[in-house]
Amino acid sequence: MPSATALRIQIEHTLERRFPAALTPVPRTIRETTPTGVSEVDKLLEGGLPVGAISEVTGPESSGRTSLAISFLARTTEEGRVCAWVDADDAFDAESAAASGVSLNQLLWVRCGSAGKLPKGKPYARLDQAIRATDLLLQAGGFAALVLDLGSTSAEYGLRIPLATWFRFRQAADRTRCSLLVLSQAPLAQSSAAVVLECAPLCAKTRDETVLSGYSYEVRSGRQRFTPALATARKPPASTWSATGTWEREKRA
Fold first, then answer.
1. Per-residue pLDDT of the chain (253 residues; tens, 9 = 90+)
2. Phi and psi of 98, rounded to 5°?
3. CATH number of 30-198: 3.30.420.10, 3.30.1360.40, 3.40.50.300, 3.30.428.10?
């Protein structure tokens, strides 16, 4: 009776003639990445956020989403590259971003709904403006990174964004080599997202037990499209990182 090894070799030879690609290992796609400026997150992502793809940073308020995005933009604008921030709820703090190292001369800030009063009876007005602005900027090209900030938008509204819209964003980001970073309360882009990071607050740090000096967060890799299939069967890796308050950085400077 032939051994298991002999049977395996026989099957491989048979399939090799009939189906040449059946036993060919699927090559792992190597993507260009851009560091986020947070070493713990870069290690978790094996280099940083993918270039020319959609990355989602999800979580509740005060979970580190905005801090991570600002760190990413600070690193990118420091290299002289142009970025954009599409602010769906007019919540972006330019002064804090500048204090964190973002070069405002290299940043286009799109404030949705700030030019005038929004129409009554249209709860999606700001969201619609943000989606249209993002579409225009991606199609135009020239941006190294683009942040679509939907962090204050209800997940109920965000989940109603058509999948075709995310697919179009994915194609445009790949064509223009733009890193599209989506901040939201829950994953929205589904299969169009290359990376999904799940953020959660841990604790606030104090100095002398009276002054708030910073925060610590947990970040978990929810999904990475370019990770081997076997890796997704295990528990997703997680890491912790800390952000220093703007006032602390100014004091040290």
1. 567 777 777 777 776 666 666 556 555 566 789 999 999 999 999 899 999 999 999 999 889 999 999 999 999 999 999 999 999 988 999 999 999 999 999 999 999 875 444 454 454 788 999 999 999 999 999 999 999 999 999 899 999 999 999 999 999 999 999 999 999 999 999 999 999 999 998 776 666 666 666 678 889 987 666 554 444 445 557 788 677 665 455 544 4
2. -65, -40
3. 3.40.50.300
Whole-number Cα distances in Å, 220 to 24, 30, 200: 32, 21, 9
Sheet holding 193-207, edge to edge: 107-111, 83-87, 145-149, 179-184, 54-58, 193-207, 211-224, 238-244
Alpha-carbon distance 17 to 150, whole Å? 52
